[in-house]
Design goal:
The protein is 40% helix and 3% strand. The chain has 146 residues and is an all-alpha fold. The protein has a domain of 88 residues. It has a two-stranded antiparallel sheet with strand order 1-2. The model has no long low-confidence stretch (mean pLDDT 80).
Length: 146
């Protein structure tokens, strides 16, 4: 049998922090903004597949849109199953799409998504995300004129 008088037990106390969190969405710190280098890869359109693969391998890792462009040229010629290193062209596109999305490089995301044939069924979640992030949304109704 244990003698309860021999133990010294201290009760838990409430932990109090000086900062209780974000009071509004405007208090949330902004993420770092990355800028895509302005490079034009259109001159690669008429290059051979080998030259395109080499250009892709030699393109800076932070040039997401440029790398997606080169993969687009290769996709048009060779399809998704072309292997560059140990990964298929499709796997490279998915990786670029995810990384660019994380960095909010929307031009690269839109282009890579289009190459992957990713479609959005509803625009509502996207508009909600924009509004929650404090952006303004303007919708225009196109009227046909005869």
């Amino acid at each position: 049998m244990v003698d309860p008088e021999g133990f010294h037990i201290t009760p838990f106390t409430q932990v109090v922090h000086g900062y209780t969190g974000y009071q509004s969405l405007t208090d949330i710190p902004k993420a770092l903004v990355f800028h895509e280098p302005d490079e034009n890869f259109d001159h690669y359109v008429h290059k051979s597949t080998h030259e395109l693969v080499e250009a892709y391998k030699g393109t800076a890792p932070d040039s997401y849109y440029g790398r997606a462009q080169l993969l687009g040229f290769l996709l048009e010629r060779e399809g998704y199953d072309l292997y560059i290193g140990m990964e298929s062209l499709k796997e490279h596109l998915v990786k670029i799409n995810r990384q660019a999305g994380t960095l909010r490089l929307w031009k690269a995301v839109r282009y890579a998504s289009s190459l992957l044939k990713q479609l959005v069924d509803s625009i509502s979640p996207n508009i909600t995300t924009l509004l929650v992030n404090g952006k303004q949304v303007r919708l225009l109704k196109r009227v046909k004129t005869l």
